[in-house]
Write a structure and sequence with these properties.
It is built from seven helices and twelve strands. With 282 residues, it is an alpha/beta fold. The strands form three sheets. The chain has a seven-stranded mixed beta sheet, with helices on both faces. Strands 1-7-8 form a three-stranded antiparallel beta sheet. A two-stranded antiparallel ribbon has the order 10-11. A hairpin with a 2-residue loop joins strand 10 and strand 11. One of its GO terms (molecular function) is methyltransferase activity. This is Class I SAM-dependent methyltransferase.
């Protein structure tokens, strides 16, 4: 049953998730409208939104000329967008098929980028470089079982004074039954070390199906996310909660400028995203 909690080792869960994400690459190359990046200066909607929040937190207010690593970059649309904004970018992902697609997109867009195949939980050793900005975009950390290890990797990738930035789906959102006609909590908010298992042949983009439908995710409450970064020695700079998503989580969501939101007054009841910025002490 979807959402059922199961006990599974990290390596087995990782292997299943990798097979699923490898299958998604061709589907997402079709559904992500990559032709938009043929237009000089075109940015992904996610990065365009994030830069409005991220850049004022940087010392000179600009991402340009910064060393930026994008963790869990998938096929690189956001990574390429950061490069388009003037950053020197490195994209990290565990999927070789995704990185190959990202490299093709970068070549098509005419931008330079470095691509590193690695799990995010050992990214610092794989990249062996420090950055001004560590960036994570939407739909990422639910795939990780150990946020304490994640926080340590983030800190290790930052040079002194560097900034970590993440906008992701809110853990409260992920407790909801997306198929109900009203807001109903169905899944755990708090984790206990077990994984949630899902069998879904489709993906969040496009109409195609994958051969490897089984995936595993881990719920992480907001307190755990913040605590992992603080425990790694970072200082919290920003914590925000948003009412809009860049994808349709539920069929009931309505399209609004820039994404999707709950209808009517429900928009005031449940957060859709969280944004965190945290700085490594200089």
């Amino acid at each position: 049953m979807n959402g059922e909690h199961v006990t599974i080792g990290w390596e087995d869960a990782r292997a299943a998730n990798l097979a699923n994400w490898e299958d998604r690459v061709a589907l997402h190359e079709e559904s992500y409208e990559l032709g938009r990046y043929d237009e000089p200066g075109a940015l992904s909607d996610v990065v365009a939104d994030d830069l409005r929040v991220l850049e004022p937190l940087l010392p000179d207010g600009r991402i340009a000329d910064k060393d930026v690593v994008h963790l869990q970059c998938h096929i690189g649309t956001d990574t390429v967008s950061l490069a388009r904004a003037g950053a020197r970018v490195t994209g990290v992902d565990f999927s070789p098929q995704a990185l190959a697609a990202a490299e093709r997109l970068a070549a098509r867009a005419g931008v330079e980028a470095t691509w590193v195949e690695s799990d995010v939980l050992c990214a610092a050793a794989a990249v062996a470089h420090e950055f001004d900005v560590v960036y994570t975009s939407i739909g990422a950390i639910c795939w990780l079982d150990d946020l304490a290890a994640w926080g340590r990797q983030v800190a290790a990738l930052l040079r002194p004074g560097g900034l970590f930035y993440i906008r992701d789906g809110h853990p409260m959102l992920y407790t909801l039954d997306e198929d109900r006609d009203e807001l109903v909590v169905r899944y755990r908010y708090f984790g206990d070390g077990t994984a949630q298992t899902w069998d879904e042949a489709g993906t969040y983009a496009g109409d195609g199906t994958v051969a490897h439908a089984r995936t595993y995710e881990w719920p992480h409450p907001l307190s755990e996310i913040v605590s992992a970064l603080l425990a790694a020695g970072l200082e919290l700079v920003l914590l925000d909660e948003g009412r809009m998503l860049p994808w349709r989580f539920s069929p009931r969501m309505v399209e609004v400028p820039g994404g999707f939101a709950w209808p009517g007054e429900e928009r005031m009841l449940v957060p859709c995203t969280f944004t965190i910025a945290a700085r490594r002490r200089a």
